[in-house]
Every structure is written in C-alpha cells, then in structure tokens.
Amino acid sequence: MENAHLVDNQSFFNCISLEKIEFKDNLKILGDKVFVGCNNLQEIILPKSLEKIGELFLPKKTNKIKIIFEGFKTAYLNL
C-alpha cells in the first residue's frame, strides 16, 4: 500500500484471500482489528515510519504469521 498514512479500523476484515501485505514508508498508524478474519495471512511487512499499532490487529485464529518490522520505533500490541 503506497501513500497511506493510516490504515483504518477493520480495513481488511475477513479478507481470506490476503496472504502477504507490505506497507510503504508513509504509514504511521495501523487501526484496530485491521486483519481480523484474515485467516490465511502469512506475512506482514511494517515500515520504519510506523508509530502505532491498534488493538487486536491480528486474526484470532491463525497459523504462524511472520511479522517484519523495518527500523521499528514504538508500537503497542494488545494480544
């Protein structure tokens, strides 16, 4: 996703076809429950510009998900 500063709450809700996603350097905020229901998600690449991750951003039922933080600053996860 290019040129997005915010990924809003539940943006990819129940997107079962989503397996991998890479966010570009402009992203600052991932909203709440962004990937809830994305049960086939395998990899998330987060940019160094990311400042905050919302609550419950990962699917509840999941296999292993590889999360790559590129130059990670500070984020808050409530899993």
Blueprint of the fold:
Blueprint: E1 6-7, E2 20-22, E3 29-30, E4 43-46, E5 52-53, E6 66-69
Parallel strand pairs: 1-3, 2-4, 3-5, 4-6
Tell me briefly what this model is.
The chain has strands spanning 6-7, 20-22, 29-30, 43-46, 52-53, 66-69.
Account of the 3D structure:
Residues 73-79 have low confidence and may be disordered. 0% of the residues lie in helices and 22% in strands. It starts with 5 loop residues before the first strand and ends in a 10-residue tail after the last strand. It has strands at 6-7, 20-22, 29-30, 43-46, 52-53, 66-69. The strands form two sheets. Strands 1-3-5 form a three-stranded parallel β-sheet, with no helix packed on it. With 79 residues, it is mainly β.
Largest sheet geometry: 3 strands, parallel
Total strands: the figure is: 6
Note the quaternary state here: single chain
SSE run: EEEEEE
Overall, the morphology is globular
State the helicity in percent bands. under 10%
Radius of gyration of CA atoms, rounded to a whole number = 11 Å
Structural class: mainly beta
How far apart are the first and last residues' alpha carbons, in Å?
A: 24 Å
List the strand order in the largest sheet: 1-3-5
Q: Beta fraction of the residues?
A: 15-25%
What's the average pLDDT? 82
Which stretches are poorly predicted, pLDDT < 50 over at least 5 residues? 73-79
Number of helices: 0
